Amino acid sequence: MTAVTLPEVLTVAALLFVLGLVAIFTRKNAIGILMGVELVLNSANLNLVAFARFNGLDLNGHVFVLFVILLAAIEAAVFLAICLAIYRRFRDIAADQVRELQG
Amino acid sequence: MVDVWLERILFYGLALVTVGSALVVTFGRNLVRSAFALFFTLMGMAAMFVYLAADFVALVHILVYIGGILVLILFGIWLTHRVIDLDIRAGRIQLIPGLILGLVLMGLLGLTIRSFNLAARTPAPYRATASGIGRLLLSTYLLPFEIASVALVVALVGAIVIGRRETSR
Amino acid sequence: MEGGTVTAIVRATQASLRLFGPEAWLTVGLLVLLVLDLVWRDVRKRFVLSGTAFGIALGAIILAIPLLSHAPTEIFSGLLVVDPFGTYLKIVIGVATLLTILVSVRNRELADYPVGEYYVLLLGLQLACMLLVGAVHFVMIMLALEMVSVSSYLLVAYRKVHSPSIEAGLKYIVFGAAATGAMLYAVSWIYGLTGTLYLSEVARRLPTMTISPGWLVVMLLLSAGLTFKIAAVPFHFWAPDAYQGAATPVAAFLTVAPKAAGFAMLVRIFYHGFSIYRPEAETWEAIPGLGWPLFLSVVAAVTMTWGNTVALWQKNIKRMLAYSSISHAGYMLMAVLTGTREGLQALLFYVVAYMVMNMGAFFTVLALSDVTDQYEDIAAYQGLAARFPELTWVMAFFLLSLAGIPPFIGFFGKFFLFAAAIRGGWAWLAVLAVLNSVVSLFYYVYVIKNMVIERPGEFRPVFSWSPAYRAVLVLGVAVLVLGILFSPIYGWTARSSYVVETFGMALRAMGK
Predict the structure, then answer these.
(1) How many angstroms separate the CA atoms of C415 and C419, rounded?
(2) What is the pTM (predicted TM-score) of this model?
(3) C-alpha angle C365/C367/C368, rounded to 5°?
(4) DSSP bridge pairs for C81
(5) Contact C388/C368 with Cβ under 8 angstroms?
(6) What's the CA angle centered on B66, arms B62 and B69, to 5 degrees?
C-alpha cells in the first residue's frame, strides 16, 4: 500500500466535473445551474492543485487557481444580476420557461 | 506504514464528503438543501487543497467561495423566491439523458486518466507557499493581476446596472 | 524567474508598457469615462459620453498603428505577444468599436438605458478582445476570455426591461459558463501533462512526450470551449438569441470583435501550442496524435452547412443575419485549419471583409429601426426600395457581398479563403464551402427581392442624416471600393501574416 497517488486525486476531480456538467444540463432552475458551474470550476482547480503538487509543488498552478477563483466570483455576480433582472420580469427563473425566443 | 494508512483514510474521507455532497448539489430536489450541500463540497475541497500542500489557495478558496459566492447564491435563492420550501423544487425533466451523458463522460475521463502514466509521479514535500505566490503575482503575473481588477470593475458596473431596481434614467 | 530584483521587474515592466500603449490607453480611458459618467449631469450627457468614448477608441487605434510593423516581441514575461498579426486584428477590433459607438449615439433601442455604463462595458469588451488577441499564456488567455464573455453577457442583457434581451443574456451565460468550465478543465490537464502554462513551451515539450489517446479527450474539451466563442456548431445555440435579443449596435459588434478575437485565440493556441513551425515551408504542422485538425474540420463543415440551412427558414432579419454569421465562422475556420501562411493571410483579409459587410448589414437594419417600425420582419420589407432607395442599394451591396458576388469585397475574401483551403489540402471542405455559398445566395437575395417588390400605395423617398444612416453609407461605399481596390488590404495581410517563429525566444532567454 502506497500513499495517495495522482490518478486518485484526478478521479475525484473528474467526478466533480461530471456532476457539475450533469447539474448544468438537468437543472431547470438558473441558480441550480450556477451551482453546477461552480462544481465544474472547482474540479479544474482541484486538478491544477493536484498537478502542481505532483510536479514539484509548482506555484504557477496555484496562481492559476487564484485567478480561476476570481473568474468564478465575477461570473457568479453577473449570473445572479441577470437572474434578478429575469425574476423581476417573470417572477420565476426556471430556465426552460423562458421561451419568448425560439431556437 | 501506519501514517500511509492514515493518509489514505484521511484522503478518502475527504473525497467521500466532497463527492457525496456534490451528488446532493446535483440531484437534490430542494435548492436550499443543494446550496448547503455545496457548502460541504467547498469545505471538503479546501481541506483537500491543504492536503495537497496548497495552504494559501485553500485560504483564498474559503474566503471567496464560502464567504462570497455561496452567500451570493443563498441570497439569490432567497431574493428570487418568497416561499422557500414550496417554490424551489428543482426540475428533473431531462434527468435520465443527463445521467447517461454523465456516466459516458465519467467513463471517458476514467480512461483518460488511466491512459497517462501518472501514478509514477511522486508528491512534493510540504512547504509554505504564500511568499512564493506573492513573488509570482508581482513579477511574472503582474499584468493579469492588474487586468483582473479592471475586469472586476467592468463586471460589477454592468452587474449593478442590470441587477438594480430602477429601470431607466 | 520567480525572484528577480525589484529594479529588474520595474525595468522589464517599463519595456513592456512601451508596446502596451493601446491597451493601457483603453484602461485609463475606461476609468475616466466612469468618473465622467458620475460628474456630468445635464441633458447633453449622452453626446458628451459618446464623444469621449469615441475619442478613447480612436486613440487606441492611433496608438496601435505604429506597432503594425513591429517585429514580434514578447512582453510582460511572455504572457502577451506583440506582433503584426495581433496588431492588425487589434486595429480591426478598434474600427468595429468606433463604428459601434457611432451608431449607438442616437439608437432608439438604447435610449432608455444608462449611457455611461454602456460605454464602459463596450470599451471593456474592446480591451478584453485586444488582450485576448495577444495572449500566449493560459492564465492570460482564460482571464481575457472570461472578460470578453462577461462583458458580452452584460451587453446582451443590457436592455433589462426588454424580455428577449435578458432571456438571451441568461441563455448566453448558461452556455458560456459551461463552455468556459469545460475549457478550463482541459487547460488544467494540459498544464498537468506538460508542466507549463506557456503555449510555446507546450509546443516544445509535446514532441518529446508519448502522446497517449487520452490527449484526444483533452483536445475535444478544449475545442468545445474554443468553438463556443466563435459561435460554431454545436455550440452556437446562444448566438441567434443573443443577436436578436441584444440591441442592434451590440449585436453588430458581437458578430465581429469577439469573433475576431476568438479566431486569434484559436490561431495562438493551435499554432503556437499544438503545432511545429516549419520555417522553410512557412507552415505550422499539427503535432500528430492530438487530432485537432480533424475536430476543427468537422466543426467547420457542420457549422457552415447548418448555419446556411437554418438561415433559409428565418423570418426575422436579425436571426437570419445571426445564422449567416455562424456559417461565415465555418468558412473562416477553414483558414485556421490550413496551417499555412497563405491561410492566415486569407483569414486576416476575410476578417476585414466580414466586418465591413456584416456590420453594414446590421447597421442597415439599425438605420431602418430609426425611421420605421417594420425593421425586423423580412416579409415587412416590401416596398422599402421606394421609401429608402439609398438604404436598399447599400443593403443589396452588403448582402451580395456576404453571398460572395464578384465586385464586392466578400468575393475576394471568399476567393482567398477557398484558394488557401485547397492549397492547404482541404479541397473537400472548400468544395463544401462553395456549395454553401450557392445556397446562401437564396436567403440573401430573398431579402433584396422583398425590398424591391412594389407595394400598392404612394411612397415618397425618405432620407435622414442619422449617424447610423451615415455609417451605413460609408460602409456601403467601402464594401464596393475595397472590393475593387482590394490590393492595399491584401498587402497589409501579407505583411501581417508574417508571424511567429520567434515565439518562446524571450522565455528561453530568461532561462526557463
Answers:
(1) 6
(2) 0.92
(3) 65
(4) C74
(5) yes
(6) 120
Question: Which value does ipTM take for this structure?
Answer: 0.91
Is residue B151 within 8 A of residue A74, CB to CB? The reply is yes
Check CB contact under 8 Å for A40 and C146: no
Inter-helix orientation angle C248-267/C115-134, to 10°: 20
The low-confidence residues of chain C, meaning pLDDT below 70, are: 1-4, 374, 454-464, 496-512
CB-based contacts of C13: which residues, under 8 Å, 6+ apart?
B142, C76
pLDDT digits (tens, 9 = 90+) for B48-101: 999 999 999 999 999 999 989 999 998 888 877 643 333 333 444 567 888 888
Q: Can you read off the three cell numbers belonging to residue C17? A: 508598457
- Please tell me the predicted confidence (pLDDT) of residue B168: 46
CA distance C165 to chain A (A): 10
- Please give the grid coordinates belonging to residue C339: 496551417
Whole-number Å distance between alpha carbons of C363 and C124: 22
Query: CB neighbours of C66 closer than 8 A, spacing ≥ 6?
Result: none
Q: Which residues 121-140 on chain C approach chain A with CB closer than 8 angstroms?
A: 138-139
Domains and CATH numbers, chain A: 6-97 (1.10.287.3510)
Nearest to C448 by CA among C500, C407, C401, C502: C401
Chain A interface mutation, best of B1, B3, B45, highest count of A Cβ atoms under 10 Å: B45
Select the residue from C148, C166, C243 to test the A interface by mutation, using most A Cβ atoms within 10 A.
C166
Q: Distance (Å, rounded) from C-alpha A2 to C-alpha A5?
A: 8
The residue in chain A having the minimum alpha-carbon distance to the alpha carbon of residue C144 is A71
Domains plus CATH for chain B?
2-163 (1.20.120.1200)
Nearest to C52 by CA among C21, C30, C76: C30
Question: Does any CB of chain A come closer than 8 Å to the CB of residue C184?
Answer: yes
DSSP category for residue B81: -
3-class SS of residue C75: strand
In 10 A of CB C454, how many CB atoms? 10
CA-based nearest residue to B27, from B19, A93, B71:
B19
Domain ranges for chain C: 6-509
Q: Do B168 and C112 make contact, defined as CB atoms within 8 angstroms? A: yes
C421, amino acid identity: A
CA distance to C48, C152, C377, per residue, from C54 (Å): 10, 19, 31
Shortest Cα–Cα distance, A93 to chain B (Å): 8
